[in-house]
Write a structure and sequence with these properties.
The structure is a homotetramer of 355-residue chains. The first copy, chain A, has 355 residues and is α/β, with parallel strands linked by helices. In chain A, 31% of the residues lie in helices and 27% in strands. The first copy, chain A, contains 14 helices and 20 strands. The first copy, chain A, is globular and about 60 Å long. At the A-D interface, strand 16, strand 17, helix 11 and strand 18 of A face strand 16, strand 17, helix 11 and strand 18 of D.
Chain lengths: 355, 355, 355, 355
């Protein structure tokens, strides 16, 4: 089969022909119908410092956000059938560690990630553990189905636990308008947030227009409005500040702003990955403000998938999310897709199985 | 001033002229711009058994859902000014009992209710404690402003506590399509519920059409579909049943259906008042199902008001809620308003200060 | 091997010799070191109505609360080794249904129960799925280890969810002093409850003395104090009533008392199984009181096991719990054990593998 | 009356005679029976940078942790009577801001603090708003009653919200063994924590011995064990790390250790005040670990007071807490008390009304 394979520890990857993978116990073989490019895939392609430290398996077929059709199942598989349309929960967990036994398997102590620790979905076929195969509505567009995984991250950022202060009727800021930030805006709107503030690092027209379309009430450019962002948001919230701030940029400036714009007793979700340790005034940011801070990684398994399914059952929401996919290109043109993202001309790029 | 006064312990009430009430310490005087009829007002008007047992003060000006303009404030009042447009949190609490000290003043041990324990808002003027005056956006239509109080009940039914399983992407049933039930449907839709099922006691066209307009995905008539309601809903939810069932009818049949249609581990809110004790199979309804049941009375003070304010800031939601007001009539025609509700031709009736 | 086998659909059971069971995929074989008699076992022994309706498998080796040593494991088993001392989570779940995917596998839609739906632990050997084998501290007395499962029920009754109003410094009532009620008193004491009220159905000296030893501050006899129980408890709590009431008796009178003695906004856990549907005044019990009600069945998997392990690491607590075991007898004398429980002379009876 | 008055913006304070303060609307006059020295009082005495920036009112009678007898009440006061024994919730709130209206008045936007923004309790008499007077059991030793306020901080650190992951059966670390840290250890023990780890900055024998007495299972000296602390704790928790880490030292090293020793998905409470902004590796500390972080300031009003009351009703707990009071001296010897604390020879110092 064709696949995008990183054969050496260095930038980029090759379109190669490799054997179709074989299923083992409790696994299923899936024919890929659409795959989308995640920020992680860009790191792997660019072979940045994170990728150099993280990747252990070479050669590696990468890619993990996808949708496809089940072609073959192991004898033990009971919850998925041939012909089912599926996407993947990309976190493969042990099911037995302390975290898995206490309702937080998304931080399993022995986690493997599809397309990072084992071969992924930028290929004609991919193998998954049964437990990681999420059955899609057969009528759901595979391109949209492929981005349910990051949409789950957006939901997780907004609702990091089952019992959490609701955003209904509350003012919320989203700092960073990458694909997950954009999705978070759409989700916040769908969840009844009152005012939604979006901040974007630069003057990226594509993303700022999408932020508006997703439902942001006010879109602020960090490069233009800089330090005044906090004041603007505070003024627009009766002086109270936002009830929740979702940091999705990985910028230290945005992290600090998130805490500054927060109402006392409010909450901050940190999803963005920082380049390095940063200085933070914990007294004023967290302690005196009685702030609650949630670290966000992965998605609760599988509540977020059920929530995403429920939200996508609404056609308006589905169409909004679809509009985040700015490009659909053949999988063989992956280099072009990476370029579109690196140059910030794209929001979400979907690769179609054309080789 | 003119007022609707119950002068004797019996049905109906009189339009009378009485003295304008005087403010005491920490109180404000409000000129009524709009008042809406609550189910409680109908009970008082009809003088049913509940009313006979509950009312201690006669003569009584009743009515409590309203909006108006502050005309006068006591010297001690600091948070409200003359000219402010306000509505009332109708629960007047002591602020010092165990419940008030532990974040649940809506079940204060020494509660007084406006329009039940002290003179209310079916009058030209009404007096409120400062703490109970909720400042409205001056541009908010007084008719809509007057129904924020029951809208708060709808929010409370959906989100009975601050930390509660979210309805986002979940399937929810609303049993009973009275005004608060209709509001609950609109709120659920605004909060991203997946499928919303509404059940109504009879073939009330007005309410069933409003339920559809509010956003119900499926509207079931208890009189026609009877026992099959549970099966229909279960079939429409992959066999799982609903994640939350909101009982807003006060019918024993609906209470039982609420538990039957619930997914194991789900939650039921009970807002409807029953005529008398009812028989319930606690084993199957609650115990074996690991159900959580929330008794709903009043509204958390003042989270629900902030949530309602935030939700009403969305024009689409505001218009939906406005459409629940099926009739606006002069306050002097209160008897007609009561008749419209008793005959179930109306959803919400707003009384305007025309005498 | 020897085993206690119900061979016919009727009361009692036989001591028989049967083949040692064989392990299948992902299963382990355990040599039983101690097994305790659960109320469910008594129902099976007595062959009451519940048992007649519930049991599908005959012949059936019953018993499910136990501790033993792993003798053999399937090749696929990774988390347990031969020689490990284990107890069993007795709920065998599918892992793939809606409930299992959303952190409440204890109400799995396709649950099987050890000793009810498949052969259990009143035998020399028992087979378990790997996932259900809970590794004990090798130094833990098997008799105590065998009652961790009901102790988990007690914890679940007190903390039915991960995010729950704490009992620390709160007043709590336990209605019913059977083994799980007694355990609940000990757990409440260990969790810092302020005043603990225990009510017992009769004048059972064994249980009332154990209730005192477990840490109850006040022990009330339902037969003697009857209706005054609510008043006594209310008087002892500054008139507020209890913050939480744990119904563990299955008596309709106790269910009603639980709600009556509850402070407004408080919570009730229902663990006791009722003989039949009961009449309840939902208005005053639940709605007007803004009560939260939790149905309790099973134990969250596996948080409660971790909590039990943590609590048992305290020697004082462990000794208290040990004292609930009033009798240790040979397994062959199971009939005697059943008699002790039926006559209420025992709290917990442990069967030892002597045949 | 005698009082300890800071008359100038500089270190220390004077014993002076001043007028007995007069009560205003809704206020009560209290005769001080015991007052304890808080870290804040030491800052005010030492006139450190924080004090220089924070204090606006001079002359200032400081001190806020106390217990006393109500001598006089304003006509409007209803919940307290002359002769009542009271302590003070020291946060005086407006009751009308967004925070006060949403169940977090402990972060009121217009907070005043007793003994900082208005005259406090290091005096013969002190005036309080009625709402801030907490009625004590008349039999409670005034010295213990005076330290309920910091004990409330300890409870708040452990249970920062009403719905929080319980510590029952969990492993918890307390970083810092000052008075509130010591109290936290005692509270954790009373709440059924499994293993309690305490870390102390130096080799302070007084505090380390008290930590043991409070119930710490392992006491680690930061100066001696340094970097190995995290490893030691991890090894003692089956490699999982602690479920909750309570940072009570204000040391950047301890903050980092708190996150390092945390199990993925666990929680950190930050109560300690840092000298300045610190560098933190947010990726590994918070994001990838899915940590929840709570900023702790003040105490929820008035849940924590009820919880403290409930806990102190247990004689064993009360005696433990009493032992944290290492010194009782006359109020006129305040300079000596400050010296004892500055030299770390004392845990808690109580001042008695001897002049």
């Amino acid at each position: 089969m064709y696949a995008i394979v990183k054969k050496m520890r260095g930038p980029e990857a090759e379109i190669s022909t490799v054997d179709v993978p074989k299923i083992k116990k409790n696994e299923v073989l899936v024919k890929v119908k659409a795959a989308s490019i995640c920020g992680t895939d860009v790191h792997l392609w660019n072979w940045n410092e994170w990728a150099q430290n993280r990747v252990r398996k070479i050669p590696l077929i990468f890619g993990h956000e996808f949708a496809g059709e089940v072609l073959e199942i192991d004898d033990d598989v009971t919850s998925v059938e041939e012909g089912d349309m599926v996407s993947a929960e990309t976190h493969i967990v042990d099911g037995t560690c302390y975290q898995c036994q206490t309702d937080r398997m998304h931080v399993c102590q022995n986690m493997e990630i599809l397309g990072v620790d084992r071969d992924g979905a930028f290929a004609e076929y991919v193998v998954l553990p049964e437990r990681n195969a999420w059955k899609n509505d057969p009528n759901l567009d595979p391109a949209i189905a492929s981005i349910q995984e990051p949409l789950g991250n957006a939901v997780q950022t907004i609702l990091p636990k089952d019992h959490i202060e609701d955003v209904a009727g509350k003012n919320v800021a989203v700092l960073g308008c990458g694909p997950i930030g954009l999705m978070a805006i759409a989700v916040l709107k769908a969840l009844g947030a009152a005012k939604i503030f979006a901040t974007a690092g630069g003057l990226n027209k594509v993303r700022m227009e999408l932020a508006k379309r997703m439902g942001a009430d006010m879109i602020l450019s960090a490069s233009e409005e800089g330090k005044s962002i906090v004041k603007v948001i505070r003024d627009a919230t009766d002086g109270n500040g936002v009830d929740a701030a979702l940091e999705m940029s990985g910028s230290p400036v945005a992290v600090r702003q998130a805490f500054e714009m927060l109402t006392p007793g409010g909450r901050v979700s940190l999803l963005g990955i920082l380049e390095k340790p940063m200085e933070l005034d914990l007294n004023n940011a967290v302690v005196f403000k009685a702030a609650t801070v949630y670290g966000i990684t992965g998605r609760r398994m599988f509540q977020t998938w059920h929530q995403v399914k429920g939200l996508l059952s609404n056609p308006d929401f589905r169409n909004k999310i679809a509009s985040i996919i700015t490009h659909k290109i053949p999988m063989k043109d992956v280099a072009k897709g990476m370029g579109l993202i690196n140059s910030k001309q794209a929001a979400k790029v979907v690769l179609e199985p054309r080789w």
